[in-house]
Amino acid sequence: MTDRIKGFVVTLEKDLREDDAEATLTALRQIKGVLAVEPQLANIEDQLNRTRIRYELGKNILELIRSSSLAGP
Predict the structure, then answer these.
(1) Rounded to the nearest 5°, which phi and psi values hold at 14?
(2) Overall pTM > 0.90
(3) Helix, strand, or coil (residue 13)
(4) How far is Cα 34 from Cα 28, in angstroms, rounded to an integer?
């Protein structure tokens, strides 16, 4: 039996201003079979998560650089 898909989540590469997102919303709404497209507003929790991820990524990169420089050629 084939599974059924009830929807998709689309993630934008960066937060857009509402007026700049209008063309994207219009395009998504024009896709055959799309019933509704509801924008999700960015909030402080999103910013906190991005900051934490950026910090962790930076920390991991520094650890990698340090460990590879200690290993030598």
Answers:
(1) -155, 160
(2) no
(3) coil
(4) 7
